[in-house]
Amino acid sequence: MALAESQNPLRVHRIPQSRYIDAVRWLSPVSPSDRFAAIAYFDADTNSPSIEIAYVDPNPQSSSPTLTPQSSWTSPSRISSLKTAHSTPQPLLAAATFSGSLHILASDLINGGVMESEATVSELGFHSGPVSAVDLREGGTECVSVGEDGRVNLVSFVGDSSKLSYRRIFDANGLVGYTAVKWASPSEFATGGYGFGIQWWDQRTAGGPVLQFKGNWCQGKTSGIVHSIDIHPSRKHTCLAGGSSGTVFAWDRRAAQQPIVLSGAGTGEAPNSLLSESEVWEVQYDRYTRRSNISNISSTRILPVMICSEDGILAVIEQGEEPLELLAEPCAINSFDIDQQNPSNVICSLEWESLAILTRS
Questions:
Q1: Element of type H or E holding 87
Q2: How far apart are CA 98 and CA 28, in angstroms?
Q3: Phi-psi region of 89 (alpha: psi -120 to 50; beta: other; left: phi over 0)
Q4: What mean pLDDT, rounded, does the chain reach?
Q5: Where in the cell is it found (predicted)?
Q6: With contact defined as beta carbons under 8 Å apart, do 235 and 300 qualify?
Q7: Could you report how far apart the first and last alpha carbons of the chain are, in Å?
Q8: What's the DSSP call for residue 100?
Q9: HEC string of 208-272?
Q10: Which among 3, 14, 29 is positioned nearest to 357, based on CA atoms?
Q11: What 3-state DSSP class applies to 172?
Q12: Contact yes or no for 29/35 (Cβ under 8 A)
């Protein structure tokens, strides 16, 4: 495995926190020099969950960058999934909880990051148990939620109402559980769950998923779980997934049931790079590309991928290349986010109650 420092300058700043961090997301900046982050905290001493908007010191040369809290929102339950829609000056946040509720929040970054609850859905029947994952549709007023209860809900928020409206797209009655979800278009999204399975949904088609990928390829190991999904806006036919046993793979919907294994055990026919042996908690396409590599990315090649794992690895995987390790921590890296406006900036949460901010150049 290659180390990032050996190829490109990499600045890493670790910022201790006083609470456990469940998730972290960049917010769209209102100016090139400003950086804001949304952080989901859990205080185990007081059993109090919250989401905080923090201003991130924009000085990349600072030896000890700081986070300045701007506003805070107290959640009724611990945050199970946090997603943002990249809009300005009031980016939206979708916060799902372990008690089965969903909350839409808005943060006014011009006026100090003031955060307000826009709408909530918490009634019985929305989800039975925790909401596993939620995703906001960019530029729209909808989000989709999934749970291990097998329910897939489409949530709409319009006007000034404090209550969200939702409709159930599918209910597997607990026979199938969903653990990840990602929008692909205004009408399509993908879900992931047990057995390394992925489902493709189209709202224009009634009933269940229109296409499914059955993960029975990993040396007979069908008990794995897909923890995270990403779909690149310019290549919506390819779904990226990360899950158990260090498995990272891509599913090209044009290639039926043949996965493109980027890391993990693979099909058993040939060894694959084993970047991590534990759970891959999150995957994202890495839009940061060095100039020397731009011409080498073909239309059929899987774009670079960033992952974080339970065994403390933050790394970039490129198909057919040696993985590039950015961080190797003595604790789990639970979540990360790449700044869409400036992909050289990455923020991630460490299990030992701290944040890490990376700047690539």
A1: none
A2: 27
A3: alpha
A4: 85
A5: Nucleus
A6: no
A7: 20
A8: S
A9: CCCEEECCCCCCCCCCCEEEEEEECCCCCCEEEEEEHHHCEEEEEHHHCCCCEEEECCCCCCCCC
A10: 14
A11: coil
A12: yes
What are the structure tokens assigned to 278, written together?
């534990």
d(CA 14, CA 16) in angstroms, rounded, equals 6
Residue 55 corresponds to which tokens in the numbers above? 């201003």
Cβ atoms 135, 83 nearer than 8 A: yes
Burial of 74 per CB tally in 10 Å (0-12, 13-18, 19+): exposed
pLDDT at 7: 55
- Which residue matches tokens 């209860």? 149
Element (H, E) at 89: none
DSSP string, 2-63: EEGGGTS-EEEEEEE-SSEEEEEEEE--SSTT--EEEEEEEETTTTEEEEEEEEEP--TT-S
Which tokens sit at 277? 């042996």
Task: Write down the residue that tokens 């029947």 correspond to.
Answer: 125
Asked if residues 145 and 164 have their Cβ atoms less than 8 Å apart, the reply is: no
Q: Is the dihedral of CA 109, 69, 136, 152 positive or negative?
A: negative
Q: Measured over all CA atoms, what is the biggest interatomic distance in the chain, rounded to whole angstroms? A: 57
SS3 149: coil
User: Which tokens is 302 given?
Assistant: 């899987």
Q: 186: phi > 0 → left, psi -120 to 50 → alpha, else beta; which?
A: alpha
Q: How many CB atoms lie within 10 A of CB 92?
A: 21
| pLDDT tens-place string over residues 1-51 | 666 655 568 889 999 999 999 999 999 877 777 889 999 999 999 999 999
The DSSP symbol for 287 reads: -
Tokens of 30: 């209102």
> Rounded distance, CA 277 to CA 319, Å?
19
pLDDT digits (tens, 9 = 90+) for 94-112: 999 999 999 999 888 877 6
Element containing residue 294 per DSSP (H, E): helix 291-294
